Amino acid sequence: MGLPLLLGLLFSRTGGLLPQSIEQPNSCITAESLCLADPACNNTYRILESCSRSYAQNNFFILDHGARNKCLQAETMIRNSHFQECKCQRRTQKQEEQCLRIYWTVHSTVPEGDFNLEISPYKNVVSEESLKTNYNKLATRVSGSHLAGDSTNPCLQGAQVCSLNRRCGRLRAMYVSNCSPKDGHPCNQRKCHQELKHFFGRVDMDFTKRFLFCPCQDEFCGERRRKTIVPDCSFQNNSKPNCLALLDTCLKDYICKSRLADFQEQCKPSSSSSDGCFQHNHATCLEAYMGMIGTPMTPNYISNSTADVTLWCSCENSGNHKVDCEEIISLFSNNRCLRSAMHSQMGLNQVNTKDQEELQSISSPNTQRDGTSTVLTTKMYWESVKKMQPEVFTQNRQLFSHSVYSGDRLSLFTLALTLLLLLRGPP
After folding, report:
1. How many CB atoms lie within 10 A of CB 354?
2. Could you tell me the pTM of the whole model?
3. Neighbours of 14 (CB within 10 A)
4. Interior CA angle at 261 toward 256 and 262, to 5°?
5. Which residue in 351, 324, 323 sits closest to 339, CA to CA?
């Protein structure tokens, strides 16, 4: 009687005969192994592999009606098996490409050329606190030594701190070497991109973010920031390709396609959000942006005098697809979420003029379920705070911009504080 009781307790704790890892979001590599051991799943998966190969050679919609239906049915069946919600892990160099190949095999019916991939193939893991103590300790050593040099150039200081960290210094030296011309011969862009991906994938983010998103007050600093990724090799070529062709190249590469999907999800802009982001997470947006570096769609700063970024491509000769082409560039050059995340990392307190106008241009109140007119309250808040002293204005603006949102609604604390300020009136 003891054994049945023990088994009953075991099943009640584990939820049945299937491991919990199968029921929860899991690695696509594990899901593939389980599927290949299941004859029915294995047969369906082989059909999808064939669909994926056909898709790589032709547009999905070029396939005949019967072939398209067969692929769609196979994909529906496979997603309800071991592959349900399977994802891949960031910063796993050895397994990442293998996992992403599997992920896009079971999502092979995403139409080629569809720019809005929307869903990231990566696990949405909350990053642990980065090694700020290590970075700050090294930064203190730099500031107190002959390495300090120009203390007004944060980009130079970031590079010096990186050189004191063994991994950061070694991988930075590797990509700089591979992104530079040798013996009069041009650099190998493919090798350059590979080393850049290694650098941004293996070095702690507290180093890479300060290194890439350093605040600049002059063009000398801005030039160093722009040249961080050795753009003569990694970013630009003799002529700009069409952005649609650049996108097509990216979608044919598992890594680039996945990083683009991740960037679209993590840096999705929102015009009604104070932080500019639909996901309300600047850190994951910056991580996704850095993930694009080293891919065919590598972004970089436009010039030495601005913190704006763009792609090295143009929309000339786009024909009837010019709007689609411009959308590709705007994802980087006119992305409110990305701009807000970068400014936050750089410590820029000022609200972008364009973004502030967007907040104030909405005149009609948007009443929520609790009867509170959030948009009207937002406008009243900005207009009342502007009348205060500049220092107080900055502090309240930062408080407002960091409010916790649920959807697009203001927190109750912010609403209460706003009403209190309005009722008190001027001192």
Report:
1. 10
2. 0.73
3. 12
4. 95
5. 351
pLDDT at 376: 33
What does the buried/exposed string (b/e) look like for 52-80 if buried means 16 or more CB atoms within 10 Å of the residue's CB?
Answer: bebbeeeebeebeeeebebbeebbebbee
> What is the DSSP code (8-state) at residue 321?
G
- Distance, in Å, from the CA atom of 380 to the CA atom of 374, rounded to the nearest integer, reads 10
Separation of alpha carbons 301 and 308, rounded Å: 6
Q: What percent of the chain is helix, strand and coil (3-state, nearest 5)?
A: 60, 5, 35
State mean pLDDT over 338-361.
66
Q: Kindly calculate the radius of gyration of the chain based on its CA atoms and give it in whole angstroms.
A: 25
- Alpha-carbon distance values, 230 to 180, 233, 242, 303 (Å): 8, 6, 22, 13
Which amino acid, residue 295? Answer: T
Tokens of 208: 């890479």
Q: What is the pLDDT of residues 243-269, one digit of tens each?
A: 999 999 998 899 999 999 999 999 999
* Residue 167: per-residue pLDDT: 93
Per residue, the 3-state secondary structure of 3-42, as one string, reads HHHHHHHHHHHHCCCCCHHHHCCCEHHHHHHHHHCCHHHH
- Average pLDDT score over residue span 339-364: 61
C-alpha–C-alpha distance, residues 426 and 364, integer Å: 26
Tokens of 275: 């932080």
